[in-house]
Structure formats: C-alpha cells, structure tokens
From TrEMBL:
PANTHER family: ABC TRANSPORTER ATP-BINDING PROTEIN ALBC-RELATED. It comes from the Bacteria. One of its GO terms (molecular function) is ATP binding. It comes from Glycomyces luteolus. Residues 6-231 form the ABC transporter domain. This is ABC transporter ATP-binding protein. Keywords: ATP-binding, Nucleotide-binding, Transport. Gene3D superfamilies: P-loop containing nucleotide triphosphate hydrolases.
Amino acid sequence: MNTPVLSTNALTKRYGRHTALAEATLDIPAGRIVGLVGPNGAGKSTLLALAAGLIRPTSGRIEVLGRTPAADAAQLADVGFVAQDTPVYAGLTVGDHLKLGEHLNPTWDAAFADGRVRQLGLDLGRKAGRLSGGQKAQLALTIAAAKRPKLLIFDEPVAALDPLARRAFLQNLMEFVAELDVSVILSSHLIGDVERVCDHLVVLAESRVQVAGDIDDLTAAHHRLVGPRGTLDALPDGVQVIAADHTDRQTTLIVHNTTGRPFEHPGADTIGLEDMVLTYLHRAEGLTAPTLEETRA
C-alpha cells in the first residue's frame, strides 16, 4: 500500500488566540494532483506551511510522505515548495538560480533544469527581477521540479498571473506530473483551474476541512433534491444535508451521500464541482446555499 503524501489527525495551528487551522484530519493518497480550495483566511497557507515544515503545529499530527515534515535533509529533498507570488531572487540571474538550486539540492537534475530554461526561452544572463510574472512563475516551477521531489507544493502560484500565463503554468505543471511521477498539492481560490488540472479536492473554510476526496467520487456523491415542502424531511441513513432552502411551497436540498451506494431519489440531480464547493463555503459562513443563478453568474 502506498504511503499517503499527506496524513494529518486533528492538526491545529494557533497564533496566540487566533486559530489558523482547527482539527484538520486528512489522508491524501500518492499520485494525486490535489486542489486545496477556500477563501482568503481559510487556513490554506497555514496547512501548506505545516506540510513544508516551515512552521510547527500547536497540536495534532502531520506526516508528509510518511515522516515528520522537514525531519532531515532527505525529507526536505523529497518536497518542492513554491510559496505565494512564486518567489525568486530579483538580483540573481536565471543562471544564478540554476547554480544555487544545484548547490542546495543533492538530487538536482541539471539536464532537466537546463532543458526547461531553453524550452521557455529564458536568457540565463537576465536578472529575475526583470522577468515577467509568467516567466518568474515558470522559473520557480522549474527550480522546484528540478529537485526531483516526490511532492510538489504550490501556494496560490497563479493568482497574480494573466489568463495566458496561468494556462501555460498549469499546462507545464501537468506535463511535470506525467514526466516526473510526482504528487502535487495546489492551493487556489480559482475553482476553474482546480477543475482543469486536479483529481483530488480539499475544501477549507473557517479554518476547518469541510470536505475532502477524489473529485469524481465527491461530485458523484453530491445531489440537489427539489420537492414540495414537507416531502424531503426523511432521508436515508448516511445521506447528509449540506444545505437547505425553503419557500412556502418548495424545498431544495444539497445532500452528500456517504453510504458508498448509488443514491436513488425522485428529482435527484448530481451537481458540478463549483456548485458543490460554493455550497460548503456558504455553509461554513452561515449563509444560505447559492441558487443555480448565483453559481452560474
């Protein structure tokens, strides 16, 4: 059985009285591209910083690739991390970045890094501070991937990029996954990007995990039920109501079928990824579930 790339149990991180992440329990299988989704302040960056070993938990357990994050040099070499704004050193040239990467990483793949830079058309003598946002993102991605890690972690890597640069970055990311046989955790608030490249989902809101699992399984297990008011009060065991909206005559429910069996109910329709995510975010904030018109706006 493959070791999960990320496993947590009741993982909690507090800063003074502020709880950034609360009681997070996850088991993410190897070989996935994981979309970590949630609003600003949900705890996404905190979870990723914990996974990268940049900070320590207040309580609970976290293992990355079966070990404590940043336990030693070997564990660090197995994880590539790109923080927000795809940080590079403005005063160093592209070539300097590759030399630094080779110096710091014992598993550095120089041929891969050099080939990627040539493919991207980056000038080795050009300082990183003079690169475009998309080029900086590609350089950061190249450096992280050239470590030949088992896990790549990205914290909002495309948030500041224009649509063309964002698409190019995500396309290259998918190519790396196929070429390097690497797992990925990608934090984003752009559900369309997650739907394009990810096959596993973690939804964070109000510092807590709202739902997690393979995307195909999750979308197949969530349904919208519509019926006359009073007719949807009794649901089978294992079918959880995520959101409910009532009018004088009609009830609309969003439900999660956790039984593992097909859900058969008159008027039941599966919902898309965006509808599902927005429903959990609305629930976490204590808001009414979004209508069809709102989710498609």
